[in-house]
Task: structure prediction
Amino acid sequence: MTVGLEFDFINAMPGIQISNAYDEEPLIHFEDFADGFILKAHAHSDFHKDYAYGMQAGLLYPFWRIHHLSAGYEQYRYWRRGFCFKEFHVEANTYTPFFKSFVHLKIAYHKRYQKKRLGLEAGIMPAFYHQHFYLGISGGYFGEYYTYSAYLQTYYYKNLLGLRLEFRQIDRFGFFNVGVHFIFKRTSLIKL
Result:
């Protein structure tokens, strides 16, 4: 299980993330739930008016050549900056020997400023992998605007502590999260 403390520097929003090693793929997967089930939830708030939350659930190896398939929901209400946004999505990853990484494809439905858009995102993750260092990039198009995202993740101290930098841009609205993730293995929890 992973618990992460995050801070969005662009929007000055602290947050928390909990998962059963969703972001740690392909390095680690803990079978806290049924074999092959992965889950991630996150929330950010300024403890006044602005908040964001989301959840993503998926399966590892649901079909031949598909590494993982997932569905998720995210909502952002940043009143100070006038940004209200909802996203429903389905995504799939598959390994390609050509890139020596996972190709990521996401179909998403966005509701933004009372406008509804269906779009597609694609990317590579990890685009660069060296021991415990990962980088992922993706981009998408939603009719009137583009989305971009990139993350960098690394692990320290016996793979129990992770640092994650994540940038995401939705049209002209950006997020820059810095997170410290604490990874709890079942064996270390039993010893406590």
Observations:
- DSSP finds one helix and twelve strands in the chain.
- The radius of gyration is 17 Å.
- Helices lie at 186-191.
